Amino acid sequence: MKTVLLTGAAGSIGSALRRELKGVYGELRLADIKAINDVGPGETFHRVDVADMGALSAAMEGVDGVIHMAGQSVEADWDTVHRQNIVGLYNLYEAARNAGVRRVIYPSSNHAVGFYPRNRRVGARAVFRPDGRYGVSKAFGELVAALYADKYDIGSLCIRIGNANDKPIDKRRLSIWVSWRDLAQLVRIGLEHPDIHFEIVYGVSDNERSWFDNATAYQLGYRPQDRAEDYAAEVLAREQPEDPAKVGPRVIGGTFADEEYVGDP
Ligand code: 15L
């Protein structure tokens, strides 16, 4: 794979992937709505708003694979989610199809299945249980990825990312954390594995408290190097007691599920 487009390159995951993928591909083409002023060797920059099809199409020219990290990354009002993650996502796949791109890494989220209780392991084929508008948009993206694989032969790896960070920041994240290098490993599998058509994996490290069955990732060769449990003592020492009146502590999505929740009066 020679030329890889990274959308959302100025964001936290985008910036980490720039670092992790340095020198791996001939050209890492950075795209973001914000300017990037430290473009390094092997990188180029395109200013792109994913809702702007023209700019997206220009950035997509000559690209072999796309890592799509742009978009709304937390819960928001419908207009915002719609613009970024529905219109933007559709534009992304259309621009990829028009440009003859063969692979897309789609960053789905644990929030596509955020209303599953924590007392079971959720696999890649589980029916969606989104915990908000954002979660719905992430499920939509997976469906678009499936359509573009089956109809237009664009291979997609959908990574239901837990929480990508330097280390797990609270008890919930001990179950869903992914380190930067483990996430980069999944991204590379998605771009380079010969047999990706439409696959869903969980973007989590080797976490003892995981709520996910990540068998598909392991079958594709994923060997995570980091473990949330290594941070468990320090995380649990500062954890505040959970509020039993809230739904968040009982389901995967945590505070995302709590927002606007009207059950359990
Ligand atoms: C997500 O999908 C978000 O993009 C990220 O910001 C975190 O909030 C994460 O989920 C999480 O569930 O912790």
TrEMBL record:
It holds the Pfam family Epimerase. Keywords: NAD, Oxidoreductase. It comes from the Bacteria. GO terms for molecular function: oxidoreductase activity. Residues 4-163 form the NAD-dependent epimerase/dehydratase domain. InterPro entries: Epimerase_deHydtase, NAD(P)-bd_dom_sf. Belongs to the NAD(P)-dependent epimerase/dehydratase family. This is NAD(P)-dependent oxidoreductase. It comes from Vineibacter terrae.
